Amino acid sequence: MRTSAQVILLVVLVLSCTVTTFSQQTLWKELNGEVFLLYQGQRYSEAAKVAQEALSVAENRFGPNHLHVATCLNNLAGLYRIQGKYAAAEPLYKRSMNIREGRLGSDHPRVAESLNNLAELYRAQGKYDEAEPLYKRSLTIMEKALGKNHFHVATSLNNLALLYHCQGKYSEAELLYRRSMNIREERLGKDHLHVAESLNNLAELYRAQGKYTEAELFHKRALTIKEKTLGPDHPNVANSLNNLALLYHCQGKYGEAESFYKRSIKIREETFGKDHPHVATSLGNLAVLYHIQGRYTEAEFLYKRVLTIMEPVIGPGHAIVATVCENMAELCRQVGKKDEAERLEARARRIRFNQ
C-alpha cells in the first residue's frame, strides 16, 4: 500500500509540474505578445516593464542560456535603445549575442541579427568605428548563409549604407543602397514597399548632397508606390510626405514644405492620436520651418507641444529633448527672452553631458 501511495503521489507531482511548466510557457508567450502591442503603440516605457517580466519568466522556465532568453534580452535592449538608454541596452545585446553564438554557432543568421542590432546601437551614439565591423560581419554571415541576393542580405546592405551615409561617405553609401534596391526590385518587384524604402533612403542621400532634383524624383516615386499600395491616408505615406516637406524646406520652398508637413501631421494625428511621437516628429519639423521664417509665436507653441508629447515616451534625458531645448533657446534669444534661453541651454548641456 505504501508503494502504491508513493506511486500515486509521484504521478500527482509530475502532473502538477507539467501544468506549472505549461502555464509558465503560456505566460511567456502572452507577455511577448503584450510587449509587441505596446511597442507598436510606441508605449516604450510600459513595453520595457513587460519585457523585463517576460525575461524573468524565460530565465526561470527555460534557463539563463536558452534561445528564448536571448530573444527577450534582444527585445528589452531594443526598447532601451529607442528610449535613448544606450548604457542599459548594450550589455543586454551582448548577452543575447553570446547566448546565440554558444547555442547556434558564430555564423548563424541569428548571430548576424545580434551583430546588426549592436551596430545600430553604436551608430545611434555616433560610435561609427565600433559599428562598422559589426555591420560588415553581419553582412558576411548573411551572404554566406543565405546567398548574396537574398532579401535579408538587402537589409544588411541597406544598414551598412546608412552608416556610411551618417559618416558622409556618400559614394560608398550610394553603391550599397543601389545594390540593396536592385535585390529588392528583383526579388519583390519594382512596386514593393521595401523598394520604396530603398528609394527613400537614396533620396535622403541625394538631399544631403544637395542633389535636390534626384532627391525629389526618388521621393515622389516612393510616395507613389506607398499611395498605390497602402492608400493616401496610411502612416507610411505620412513618412514620405514628411521627407518631401523636408526636401522643399531645404530648398527654401517654404509654402510647399508647410503644405506637406501639415498633410503628414493630419494623417498621423488621425492614425495615432494627437499625442503620439510620430506626430511630434512632424510638429518639430514644422516648428523649425516657422522658426527660420521668423514666425516665432507659432514655432514656440509647436516646440513646447513636441516636448509635452516626447518626454513621457523617451524620457527627459534623451538627445531629442536636448535638440528641442537648443532650438527653443535660440528662439528665446531672438525674441529677447535671455533668462529663458539660458535655462534651456543649461538643460540641453546637462543632457548632452550625461549621454
Structure description:
Helices cover 85% and strands 0% of the residues. The protein is mostly helical and 355 residues long. The chain is globular, with a radius of gyration of 24 Å. It has helices spanning 2-40, 44-62, 67-82, 86-104, 109-124, 128-146, 151-167, 170-188, 193-208, 212-230, 235-250, 254-272, 277-292, 296-314, 319-334, 338-354.
Question: Would you summarize the structure shown here?
Answer:
The protein is an all-alpha fold and 355 residues long. The chain is built from 16 helices and no strands.
Fold blueprint:
Layout: H1 2-40, H2 44-62, H3 67-82, H4 86-104, H5 109-124, H6 128-146, H7 151-167, H8 170-188, H9 193-208, H10 212-230, H11 235-250, H12 254-272, H13 277-292, H14 296-314, H15 319-334, H16 338-354
Tally of DSSP β-strands: 0
What percentage of residues falls in helices of 4 or more residues?
Answer: over 70%
What about the largest sheet? none
Structural class: mainly alpha
What is the typical, i.e. mean, pLDDT? 90
The low-confidence runs, each spanning 5 or more residues with pLDDT under 50, are 1-20
* Share of residues in strands: under 5%
Radius of gyration: 24 Å
Shape: globular
* H/E topology pattern: HHHHHHHHHHHHHHHH
Q: Give the distance, in angstroms, between the N- and C-terminal Cα atoms.
A: 69 Å
| Count of discrete alpha- or pi-helical segments spanning 4 or more residues | 16
Short key terms for the protein model shown above:
16 helices
